[in-house]
Design a protein that fits this description.
The chain has two domains: 10-82, no CATH class; 84-164, no CATH class. By secondary structure, the chain is α+β, with helices and mostly antiparallel strands. The chain has helices at residues 2-8, 30-43, 46-53, 57-66, 68-95, 116-125, 127-132, 139-164; strands spanning 10-13, 19-22, 97-102, 108-113. The protein contains eight helices and four strands.
Length: 165
């Protein structure tokens, strides 16, 4: 077992004569790349992804410039992260967030707050897509769309609850 662990720290380097050297924390492995892209997709934060993968920011950006497959993975991760963020913001705009208001007599009152700025931003982002859509949507399509949206929001809520546990 100790021999296997030691072998994982060694890397083969080329040149005129092949050599075996100790691996460096700066070297990228499949595991480091997967960790980096996973955290990047979750957070859209390069610094956090680098910390999780134990690589430097400059090494990540250098790899992005020189490795097309990594660059494509990076773009996919950012795209996935932004899709998740948009779904969370959409859910917040539709369902609001609970706000606790303390009255002058000390009572707590709970109310829903709907962030209009988020809703307006989402509408602005998708204005062109909405303009291309049909102006009149059949009633049966509206019911189906509403149900599909609610199912997506429920799946997102379950995923969010599972990740916080």
């Amino acid at each position: 077992m100790a021999r296997k662990a030691k072998a994982e720290q060694l890397v083969l380097v080329g040149g005129e004569k092949s050599q075996v050297r100790r691996g460096s924390d700066r070297n990228w492995s499949k595991a480091k790349e997967a960790k980096f892209l996973s955290v990047l997709a979750e957070t859209c934060n390069v610094t956090l992804a680098c910390e999780a993968a134990k690589v430097s920011n400059s090494a990540a950006y250098c790899r992005r410039r020189s490795d097309a497959a990594f660059r494509a993975g990076w773009l996919d991760a950012i795209g996935a992260g932004y899709q998740k963020l948009e779904l969370v913001l959409l859910e917040r705009a539709l369902n609001g967030t609970e706000k606790v208001v303390i009255k002058t007599d000390g009572r707590e009152e709970r109310m829903r707050e709907y962030p209009n700025a988020i809703a307006l931003t989402l509408l602005r982002m998708h204005r062109d897509t909405a303009a291309e859509a049909e102006t009149e949507v059949p009633v049966e399509d509206i019911a189906e769309i509403r149900e599909r949206l609610l199912e997506k929001l429920q799946r997102l809520r379950k995923r969010e609850e599972a990740s916080t546990e």
